[in-house]
Amino acid sequence: MKADSKTSDDDLIARIADGDRLAMQVLFSRHHVRVYRFVLRIVGHQSVAEDLISEVFLDVWRQAGRFEGRSAVSTWLLAIARFKALSAIRRKSDEELDDEAASAIEDPSDDPEVAVQKKDKGAVLRKCLQSLSPEHREIIDLVYYHEKSVEDVAGIVGIPENTVKTRMFYARKKLGELLKAAGVERGWP
Fold it and tell me: Where along the sequence do coiled-coil regions lie (predicted)?
């Protein structure tokens, strides 16, 4: 049986558990971009995100036989990716700040490029999202960018559904305040 775009993710995982490399290629091509973007938003560095994506899909290859199907495969992938990204952040925070890292710290003063970006509403939104706490940013990311349900988000993050709802409420409230302070009103294109 060939693995193609019509093969379900659950079928692909079952075939990967049996050592089917083609099924792994199909699953990777189907999900790697979304998982990469999710990880990139958490870690903020392309090279780190690329390394973590390799680790995520290596784990999928090794652990496919343990997938129980209690959630969608995409939810399982994001949960693995989240764990790896948070672990990488913890490892990085344990490292000492060297001269190269110190020189990479942004100067908060506005230069002409920043002034132009402030007028770009998309850039304003991205900046406001970055101002949210990591917990709130993560919830917004999973719900709006990955279109995950409250139940799926609770499973990925490992918190109760009511906590997801509470964080979502406060994240949206804070985001609205940040956008208003930046001069962007609701209903903008």
Answer: none
DSSP 141: I
pLDDT of residue 108: 56
One-character DSSP codes across 73-118: HHHHHHHHHHHHHHHHHHHHHHSPP-HHHHHTSPP-S--HHHHHHH
Q: In degrees, to the nearest 5, what angle opens at C-alpha 134 toward C-alphas 35 and 132?
A: 115
CA-nearest of 119, 43, 115, 118 to 83 is: 43
Three-state SS at 163: helix
Ordered mean pLDDT values, 10 residues apiece, the chain (189 residues):
73 94 94 93 91 94 89 92 90 61 57 57 81 90 89 92 94 89 66
The candidate with the shortest Cα–Cα distance to 32, out of 40, 42, 43, is 40
Short-list 39, 127, 146, CA closest to 83: 39
Residue in the block written with tokens 């979304």:
34
Q: Report CA-CA distances (Å) from 68 to 14, 71, 156.
A: 10, 8, 15
- Tens digits of residue pLDDT in 108-129: 555 565 555 555 677 778 888 8
CB distance 145 to 37 below 8 Å: yes
